[in-house]
Protein: Mother of FT and TFL1-like protein
Amino acid sequence: MKPSATAQAPEIQLSDNSEGNNYYTLIMTDPDAPSPSEPSLREWLHWIVTDIPGNSGGSETTSGFSWLQEQVTHTSSSGRELVPYMGPRPPIGIHRYAFILFKQPSTPFLISPPTVRNNFSTRNFASHYGLGLPVAATYCNAQKEPGSRRR
Structure:
């Protein structure tokens, strides 16, 4: 994917067919920061949205991330943006961008946002807040777009 096509945060849409009022947390990271061959800043945190209602699905269309359409309505109506969205901007090479979805143990989900984006650990975050194992995950690839050449 081109980073310019992912500048805006995707809309989140979930279809939870269970009987309960479930809420979810979505985390987006880059495990290849700053470069795939030397990911010394892995995982780079790009986004955290909590309190996403499981019944936020519908016939709405998503913008930007069409490949995430089945899993991912606007964060203002479908969750609380804990860490603001930062679109993919790989400095070098092809980077993977992972979207991991967890079912929350309760709502509202009272957590503190991480103080830095580098060296984030999805596994440690999930463990610390009792999120358990992911219920869904997907990823995309992005690479740096070539600059415009002037002649």
